[in-house]
Amino acid sequence: MNFSQLNYFERDKLVPLVCDMLTKANGRPLPSQVIAEAIRKIGHHTDTRSVRRVISYIRREGLVPCVASSPKGFFVANNVREITDTILSLEGRVDAIQEVIDALREQRYFKFNL
Predict the structure, then answer these.
(1) pTM, whole model, 2 decimals?
(2) Which superkingdom is the protein from (predicted)?
């Protein structure tokens, strides 16, 4: 399954629960582990990987506007700085991933004469 695609359970069960949790947190950061534990307490099996996939979906679809993140967790941004910091962090991750891709392509070229 592509990381960006949700399965039925994630889309129809977890997305509404996570949207509700983010909205009710009033800007307080929620770690993915805390979100997963809260969902398990109401009888649904999930893990932090599924929570992150769901949050990515929520962000892409704009279901809860301006879901930001920090080392403390996910939250709805209360100001432009919070969402800007998240955007800059994500851009930095994209750049780091691109550097790895470029390095692996170069290594492949030299190792396999491609």
Answers:
(1) 0.89
(2) Bacteria
Is residue 69 located within the same domain as residue 22? yes
pLDDT at 3: 59
pLDDT value at 37 more than 70: yes
**Strand, helix or coil for residue 70:** strand
Residue 46 above 80 pLDDT? yes
The tally of domains found in the chain comes to 2
Q: Which residues of 91-113 are buried (b: 16+ CB within 10 A; e: fewer)?
A: eeeeeeeeeeeeeeeeeeeeeee
Mark out the alpha helices in the chain (DSSP H runs).
8-9, 15-24, 32-41, 48-61, 80-112
Digit-coded pLDDT (tens) for 47-61: 999 999 999 999 999
Q: Are 38 and 60 in contact (CB under 8 A)?
A: no
**Number of residues that this document lists for the chain:** 114
Range of the domain at 59: 1-77
- Are residues 38 and 28 part of one domain? yes
The token duo for 55 is 């949050």
